[in-house]
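Apologies for my clumsy wording, but could you write out the amino acids of a protein and the tokens describing how it folds?
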Amino acid sequence: MNLIKESVLRLNEYKVAQKGARIKLNQNESPYGVPEELRAQIIDRLNRQDWNRYPALEPEALINSIGRYCQFPAPGIMAGNGSNEIIQAIMLASCNTTDKVAVVTPGFSIYPRVGATIGANVIAVPLDRDFQFDAPALIAAALDARLMIFATPNNPTGTVIDATLIEEILSRFRGMLVVDEAYFEFSRISVQNLIKKYPNLVIIRTMSKAFSMAGLRLGYMLGQPDIVKAVNLARLPFSIDVFTQIAGEVLMENVESVAKHVDEIISERERVFLELDIIEGVNPIPSSANFILFEIENCRGMEVYEELLNAGILVRVFNDHRLKNYLRVTIGTPGENDSFLERFKMVMSGKRGRKCESRA
């Protein structure tokens, strides 16, 4: 008897390079740490807690802080151990084995991974040739899906879906639509105003990106209170530790420090895009997130990735066949971006006049 489900055994191991480079631009993290004065506040509050006691089962102070930041009522908010836990809780709460889950491709790999783990029938809807959302295909997929989930801006493309299309899907869809706004602070576009009108819409966000909390794992969900309460039943209790709860509260109470860094990242994103756009044989995709996906004509992404890595610069390469000629670079500090651009231009200059590895 096989002790592990076939749906799990069929999964590939989740791997992302995390070390081994002086400049790390591969996981869409913030290049800026939490300011020292806020770190001091967090540690001070933490030192006043009893570490031998469980954290709050329902982190009321954290939820209220999120509510003020989002201008959203607390009963419609659920926090979790990163947005990944929330994705898992939503699928566990809403989907049975073989239920249809619609995602976009290329998209965030965690969605189909969690869907496959629970035994759902994951249907991938391709983005169009320009990596824009394919409206007719999405609507067709949504008609008989139990759940549809996608990010806007989308990871790894940085492209966004128009709010009117989201509302069109909702008007014709009876399943749950999960809109992942992980990069909301960089796009400044949200559809949270549609939640009151459509009970089957939920929004998830993370504090790993703009809030510099990738190492602490905190995400949250916005939805109608009855949906949030039901999804919370599928989430493991005490999953948000005391440290993370306190850090989330402090950062939500000091969003001006976050806004400053976000503005800097957006400015750098536009600069890096323009620099990439003038390099011969490079086609960057306009992005509303904190990263840029770019095509390297007539070259496999892995070939350029390895040359950058040999120079101590880590970007993201993909196994996806459609993305074999693409790389994704996270926007770093101005100095990190300069180092990346300088080395990348040298790599591309060295390839000019000679044939790269075949695209076939």
